[in-house]
Amino acid sequence: MPLSESEALVVKQLRAMAPDLEAQLCRFVKIDSHTDHHEGVNALGWEIEQELMKSGLHTSAFVTGCSGQYLMARTRHGKGNKLMLLGHLDTVFPPGSVELAVVPDPQDPLKLMGPGATDMKGGLVVMLAALRALQDVGLLAEKSLTVLLSADEETGSPAGRDLIAKEAEEHHLCLVLEAGSPDEKGGSRFVTSRKGMARFNLEIKGIAAHSGVAKEAGLSAAIEAAHKIIALEALNDASVGNSVNVGVCNSGSSVNTVPEFAHLKIDCRFSDPGRGETLVEKIRQICQTPVTSHKDTHAVPELGLEELCGHQPFVRSEAIGRMAQRIVDWGKDLGLTLEEETRGGASDGNIAAALGIPTVDGLGVVGAKIHSNQEWLYRQSIVDRSCLLALTMMRFYEL
Ligand SMILES: [Zn+2]
Predict the structure, then answer these.
(1) Per-residue DSSP letter, 385
(2) FRET label pair with 20: which of 111, 140, 262, 272, CA 20 to 30 Å apart?
(3) What is the whole-number distance in angstroms between the Cα of residue 155 and the centre of ligand 1?
(4) Ligand 1: distance of its center to the CA of 26 in Å?
(5) How far is the CA of 397 from the centre of ligand 1 (A)?
(6) Ligand 1: distance of its center to the CA of 184 in Å?
(7) What's the pLDDT at 78?
(8) Other C-beta atoms lying within 10 Å of the C-beta of residue 256
(9) Residues of the chain under the 70 pLDDT cut
(10) What is the pTM of this model?
(11) What is the pLDDT, as a whole number, of residue 252?
(12) 291: CA distance to ligand 1 center in Å?
């Protein structure tokens, strides 16, 4: 379908904004907004709040007590189809760990590199641009829109997941501004399914003893941990989309002491909700059942299992499939080649999708190597994805 006059106007306006959008991305990346650096998260939130107000939205910030502030914005008198845009302010880069700057990729001038630029400050720039362009042509004020930006998405949005769920339930469509990945033929992808995730901390307490003087009095927490790691790793089954990783394993205090403590951090992923429940139950059993014991006293290690914030899988429903096809078609009208992708990593989109809300993710900038110091995005994708989001919004409101 060719672009209507107003659609063409919005696209033209967004294309003219390209240098400003890159400059805005550079400013956002310079603000250190690691999840635990609450002042930085709030500082970025404040910048974005100013931009959202320029687009005529009224904003509110939510203090959670254990994260930076969540930011919400709405149109004042919206009618018709209700749309929610989801994003996050935080990044995974601890203060001082990387240089906070956006630089051209020395190997490829079409790419920009910067910590948090792709995941997902670029997505925030895309969102603000689309909103501004729609507002400028008078296409936003009467529409029903909620923007919700998490302050701790990189740890699973523990502080605001109830808020995200409550808001998502009030909307007909949820679009998520996480990054999409490039495809090999010059097109790009957006996300219509993601794995579910569960995380655990396991504390193991054995009995310390001098390894030379009284080795036999000890009960090694490290040996119990070793059994746990092998049993947990055996749960991996890629054929059904289950994965389990013991990503951190600490134990022992000195070379000549039987280790009294061990600490494991466990991450598991699953494609299917039912299989996920079974997998999580098996992990609990392994982690709560000691397998070693003291040979004389039969004392067993103490096991303390903590379950952290997880996500249900983001399953591609029929409604998600229909919306995805529309986005592919609408992308063609902009000259963009788009296809769907599945991702192993969870996002706040999982929260909305698990409630049955049609959710489409990966609509932010196009790039890869997120969470590493090689994180990059295609320059052109800032404008392309702004146009795609604006067009998707305009046509969704007409559905
Ligand atoms: Zn992200």
Answers:
(1) H
(2) 140
(3) 10
(4) 17
(5) 26
(6) 22
(7) 81
(8) 11
(9) none
(10) 0.90
(11) 95
(12) 38
pLDDT in tens, 99-132: 899 999 999 999 999 999 999 999 999 999 999 9
Q: What pLDDT does 176 receive?
A: 98
Residues with Cβ within 8 Å of 238's Cβ and at least 6 positions away in sequence, in order, are none
Please state whether 348 falls in left (phi above 0), alpha (psi between -120 and 50) or beta: alpha
The rounded Å distance from CA 178 to ligand 1 centre is 5
The tokens describing 40, both together, are: 């930085």
pLDDT of residue 122: 98
| Ligand 1 centroid – CA 388 distance (Å) | 19
Give the pLDDT of residue 140. 92
* C-alpha to C-alpha distances, 181 to 43, 175, 266, 318, 341, nearest whole angstrom: 28, 16, 27, 23, 8
Beta-strand (E) ranges in the chain? 58-62, 70-74, 79-88, 103-105, 108-113, 143-150, 173-176, 188-194, 196-205, 209-210, 243-251, 257-258, 261-270, 302-307, 338-343, 359-360, 367-368, 376-378
Helix, strand, coil percent content, the chain, rounded in steps of 5: 40, 30, 35
C-alpha of residue 164 to centroid of ligand 1, in Å: 15
Residue for token digits 């306006």? 13
Q: How far is the CA of 370 from the centre of ligand 1 (A)?
A: 8
pLDDT for 185 equals 87
Could you give all domains of the chain from N- to C-terminal order, each with its CATH number?
5-195+314-398 (3.40.630.10), 196-307 (3.30.70.360)
pLDDT of residue 298: 96
Alpha helices in 210-361 (DSSP H): 221-233, 273-288, 318-333, 349-354
Q: What is the distance in A from the centroid of ligand 1 to the CA of 27? A: 18
Q: Is 81 within 8 Å of 399 (Cβ atoms)? A: yes
How remote is the CA of residue 18 from the centroid of ligand 1, in Å?
23
Tokens encoding 139? 């296409």
